[in-house]
Amino acid sequence: MLEVLNSAPMYLICGLIILFVALVCVVFMVRAYKAGIAIGMDKKKLNYAVTSSITFSILPSIGILLGVIALSGSLGTPWPWLRLSVIGALHYETQVAEAAAEQVGIGQLSASVMTPQAFTTIALLMSLCIIWGMVLSLFFNKSYLKKLQGKKKDSGETAKKEGFGDAAMTAMFIGLVSAYMGSYIGGFVSGKGMFTFQGDYVPIIVAVVSALVMAVFTYFAEKKHMVWLESFSIAGSMLIGMLAAIVL
Hints:
Blueprint: H1 2-5, H2 8-38, H3 43-58, H4 60-75, H5 78-83, H6 90-103, H7 116-128, H8 132-149, H9 164-188, H10 202-222, H11 230-247
Helix pairs in contact: 4-11, 6-7, 10-11
């Protein structure tokens, strides 16, 4: 099955889609650059924005590459490459793929038990479940942005108060972290009796290590005003978390 998922037709289909998206990005980048020149922006500042964006995109993209490598062992290389190159997110893709694998009956993401039917279902769910943010933005993004920005004063400045968006993002983040930690703890606290720790403790340790590393990045970015570290925080936390898993 893995040979089929890594076949030339799969590379061709996924590669053409990625190429189209890349061309769209280039077109909009060129148009944005020309628009900046047209409104009188300094060319040096525009060039600096381009070069700095390229520089600060290299290391964070390592996290995406790690996701492609992690999923390629069970889903082949072309499909994870496509999903994580367009609108996919690493935590989303792996979570949905694993959940779909359990529901179709193969139990886990593994090339040895992957079937065409299972891959079709997994790929379909990975694609359909993530498009709604983009689709709903077409219809509700304008009114939603007004709520996020809050009411404007007579002077035209945005009122500085916590709006619905801040509370919603905080609640969603806490819920997401709680769900993951609950899953890790549940996998560790296993057995028929209460507090019989027979499961795998590695995910819990890795989550703690990754959180501590992220806290270090956040400290230097916010307290020491090293804002450029924010671009490396996710990739750095992932790499050190994976290193902790290997050591354990």
